[in-house]
Amino acid sequence: MAVLTVLPVDHPMLRRKASRVRGVSAGLRTFVDDMFETMQAHRGAGLAAPQLGRPWRVIVADTGSERFALVNPEVVRASGAAVAEEGCLSLPNWYGPVERATDVTVKGLGLDGTSVRRRLRDLAARVVLHEIDHLDGVIFTDRLVDSEKLRFVDPRSQEAQELRAS
Question: Which of 9, 91, 139, 165 is spaced 20 to 30 Å from 53 by Cα?
């Protein structure tokens, strides 16, 4: 496994709509392993393939209680709403309030190539919606409920540790 370079928020790849993946291969599974390794190295909760320079519809998530990858993820149902602070590995140390659904059902392919359907709540729902946005060229700053509340948080602060844990 390898830690890959996360593209910065101003990279044009992050504004492109990612392409559907035709099938799950050994090479894709290796890339997903690298995605998990990269996400963990940067202490993230989710990561999308475009953030690593690949225009593919692939995401990974690790919320502490759930760890999974989805290929060609699609939201099939969403309900509830909550505003919470979000950050992004492509815009390190910046956080702002974003409203997201609190209960979502997503479908896609698992790493074995079979269809999967997952119901996710709260943090897991937020992470998956954030990453699916990346697949559509949308960055969390596009969804801020108040753009004046986007703020830099010192990565060494207690607040930064708490934000990473939530």
Answer: 165
